[in-house]
Write a structure and sequence with these properties.
By secondary structure, this protein is α/β, with parallel strands linked by helices. The protein has four helices and nine strands, in the order ββαββββαβαββα. Strands 3, 4, 5, 6, 7 and 8 form a six-stranded mixed sheet that branches. A three-stranded antiparallel sheet has the order 1-2-9.
Length: about 170
């Protein structure tokens, strides 16, 4: 891994970076003595890249599922490395409108820099859960990452924004 001028470069950065945003949010809560406002389960899938991701393993009482995965940076996309991104639609169709509105409101309330984007050739772990019959409100957020499935690049600003969005969600009603 290389770090230069706030940019991080590494192989398989998307999954590592997204897990790190979750770990950083959990640590920030613990360090501040705060707790999430609801029961929270963290699920890290080993199978995201092959399409069955979170198709199993999500507890039955879950009503909202926030999937954290990279936001593709490239031609025709709105995402960039300096922001976190809310994916509103991908190859499986649109994500939950109500939860997307909630996530946008949280970002705006807390000054979290974000973009919205559509990924017509992408599917998420959360979408795999939907296809397996899961009935939850689903949103997808994540840091902008360039050169997907190569020697990838992200910026600390996008990672921090993603972590802050996760924290805002965990502390929201």
């Amino acid at each position: 891994m290389e770090v230069t001028n706030g940019f991080i470069r590494s192989r398989f950065l998307d999954d590592k970076a997204c897990v790190e945003t979750l770990v950083a949010a959990i640590k920030a809560l613990a360090d501040s003595g705060q707790s999430p406002t609801r029961s929270v389960h963290f699920h890290v899938s080993n199978y995201e890249e092959v399409g069955h991701g979170a198709s199993v393993g999500i507890p039955g009482e879950v009503e909202e599922l926030i999937t954290v995965d990279m936001a593709v940076v490239g031609e025709g996309q709105e995402s960039d490395e300096y922001h976190t991104t809310l994916c509103i639609k991908d190859s499986g169709g649109p994500y939950h409108e109500g939860l997307n509105k909630k996530m946008r409101a949280l970002a705006e309330k807390h000054g979290i820099p974000y973009k919205t984007d559509v990924y017509p050739f992408y599917g998420s772990d959360g979408e795999a859960f939907w296809r397996a019959g899961g009935d939850v409100a689903l949103a997808l957020i994540g840091p902008g990452i360039d050169a997907s499935h190569n020697y990838e690049r992200a910026h600390m600003d996008g990672l921090v924004a993603t972590m802050n969005w996760i924290l805002a969600y965990l502390l929201s009603n």
